């Protein structure tokens, strides 16, 4: 047997065991957190281990993806952010200092980081 195949035969069962252990611990964590927090706070029913696993899988699908880091949606988001940053830089370079300061002031007012025009007039 080749050394690579021997290593794979040894690692594969460990990987499967690790995944099963991860799922079991994740299900237990969700089960205990749910049963500890939600029934007293909101009066919801307690859940079983299998319901906790289902909830964990649902949350993973809706909010966490499938663990394919650096592909699909995340690449699209990064490209869009880079494009927006590039466009903002181009616009700022073509502005005069007075226009840049006016732009900064409008952004501060819009996002709540400075006095608004209404408060200046009063």
Q: How would you describe the overall organization of this protein?
A:
With 122 residues, the chain is mainly alpha-helical. It has 2 domains: 1-67, no CATH class; 70-116, no CATH class. 80% of the residues lie in helices and 0% in strands. The longest helix has 40 residues, at 3-42. The radius of gyration is 26 Å and the shape is flat. The chain starts with a helix and ends with a helix.
**DSSP helix count?**
5
List the helices and strands in order. Answer: HHHHH
Q: Mean pLDDT across all residues, rounded?
A: 83
This entry's quaternary arrangement is: single chain
Number-wise, the strands total 0
Runs with pLDDT <50, length 5+? none
How many strands, which pairing sense, and closed or not: the largest β-sheet?
none
Shape: flat
Radius of gyration: 26 Å
Descriptors:
122 residues, mainly alpha, 2 domains, 5 helices, 80% helix, flat
What is the compact description of this entry?
The protein is an all-alpha fold.
Please render the helix and strand layout as text.
Layout: H1 3-42, H2 49-64, H3 73-94, H4 97-111, H5 117-121
Helix pairs in contact: 1-2
């Amino acid at each position: 047997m080749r050394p690579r195949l021997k290593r794979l035969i040894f690692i594969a069962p460990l990987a499967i065991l690790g995944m099963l252990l991860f799922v079991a611990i994740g299900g237990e964590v969700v089960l205990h957190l749910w049963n500890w927090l939600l029934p007293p706070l909101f009066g919801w029913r307690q859940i079983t281990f299998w319901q906790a696993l289902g909830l964990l899988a649902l949350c993973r699908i809706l909010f966490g993806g499938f663990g394919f880091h650096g592909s699909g949606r995340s690449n699209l988001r990064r490209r869009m952010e880079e494009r927006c940053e590039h466009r903002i830089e181009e616009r700022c370079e073509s502005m005069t200092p007075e226009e840049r300061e006016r732009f900064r002031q409008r952004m501060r007012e819009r996002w709540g980081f400075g006095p608004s025009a209404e408060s200046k007039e009063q």
